[in-house]
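Annex B. Sample input.
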Amino acid sequence: MSADLPEYYFRIRENGAAVFRIDTENRQRRIEMDQIAVINIRNGEVKPHGQRVLSERDQAEIAQWVDERRAVLAQRDIDDIHRAVDYLNLTTQWAQSKASDEQLEDVTDRLLMAMHDLRTVLVRKKADRLSKD
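Annex B, continued. Sample output.
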């Protein structure tokens, strides 16, 4: 079983992860997880756990995980935006064909404000990009 286990385990947290070193080389052959660090993905800060000093291998594994995690999060962000476009289209279809007057009354002002805010930002960003060229 130990051949299939990674040497490090990253427990995802809100802003990063707790990093554990996995050990199965003990008398009971139990899986032991020794926390070695905490990562803040937003600022890249790595705090060794307790008085621990991280080895070069620890640091390299953590750096690789941070790079991979940032790529996953960036991909999720763009996927969420593509879904938002789909939801806007579905919302338009709902408002046009299925929504009751009461349902429209409940959401219209919030939708209009959110769409106005989004449009303002998108137009400003597009103008900024066009003025750079």
